[in-house]
Design a protein that fits this description.
Layout lengths: L1 E5 L7 H7 L3 H8 L3 E6 L3 E11 L2 E9 L8 H12 L6 E7 L5 H6 L3 E6 L2 H5 L4 E3 L2 E3 L2 E7 L7
Length: 153
Amino acid sequence: MRIFEVTDHKEQYLPLLLLADEQENMIYRYLDRGTMFALEEDGINAVCVVTDEGNGVLELKNIAVAPCRRRMGYGRELMEFLLSLFANRFQILRVGTGDSPLTIPFYESCGFHRAYVVKNFFTDNYDHPIIECGRRLTDMVYLERPFPPEVSL
């Protein structure tokens, strides 16, 4: 398994990115300014994009795993990679997501806790209803977790 930074032609990963954020123009709001990583093992299985939001906050804007590779630990592997790579540069890792039983439990299992909610985010910013697990998402739930302190051996 290999995780590498994607610096050029990020748009080639759009089909994967759209699994986590299903409106293309929303992805383009952060894709160019974000740092992108891909996880490769017998092909590209997962991608993520993070942005520096200032004041010690790194935001996970997108994390997506290919449907046939879900529940194999790739999302968690990317999360651990980010926590390790950016531990000395940021204090908080933040993620915004819909209030969905598909995503919230994953983030909570990775040590995130609910921080705040942006009301009507999905209804105000997306041109179509976002449906997950049979229900329409309206609010953006932000979760945060501290970066672990650097461990010196």
